[in-house]
Amino acid sequence: MEIQQKLLTVNQYSRPGTKLKQVKNIVVHWVGNANSTAIANRNYFESLKERKSFASSHYIIGLQGEIIQCVPESEIAYHANNANSYSIGIEVCHPDWQGKFSEITYKSLINLLADLCKRYSLEPTTAIIRHYDVTKKLCPKYYVEHSGAWLQLKQDVKVNMGTEDTELKKAAEILYKRNIISVLSAWDDVTKFKLEYVPGLLKNMGGIDRLVKDKIISDKLLWEYKQYNANHVRDLIIKYSKLG
After folding, report:
1. pLDDT tens-digit profile of 2-18?
2. Could you identify which of 26, 77, 99, 218 might form a hypothetical disulfide with 141, taking C-beta atoms 3.0 to 4.6 angstroms apart as the criterion?
3. Residue limits of the N-acetylmuramoyl-L-alanine amidase domain (predicted)?
4. pTM to 2 decimal places
């Protein structure tokens, strides 16, 4: 994996030089400018020192899979509001306004994410997040609108790393032995979850009220109004498996 280091000039608007004290998350963005290049977006960040506007990222991945580093990993970049203080930001170029990353761009993104997760000892399933997960901004657009593609992206990172979600697998095995679930393979891989089956899972666990009482669920309305996603279900399975 080749990375072109084209660091921004230290300035208060796009590279403040502030130390990044910890890395808990990696935030994926789309550049929001169809068919623009990585170097053009890097140069835009550089220009902000004159425009007096705040924005930047640590990395930009281009349409040909090129990776440009704009800000050292040891410093914060301005990409995700409050998450700036504990995350690395990656902006990704896209060929059109649908926002789906091209195959070669996607491959570079997976390689970079896997490398970062290894170096910072991060679990891809929980550590890799979208800009949307921080601010509810529609970014990266395609992967907000297609949650299955987002889950697959994180799974592809795990495959690249040669790892699997052992915590979920162990939890699902416990539920299988307790007859809470009848098909182990449907619940031991977050990318294979079918959310339409979650009401049945909740029923087998004793229902939402019981789960609230047992402090497995904290947000009752999330489950009653079916606003949960696959990561919520993953956490539910793991927490329930720890009940005595």
Report:
1. 999 999 999 999 999 99
2. 99
3. 13-158
4. 0.72
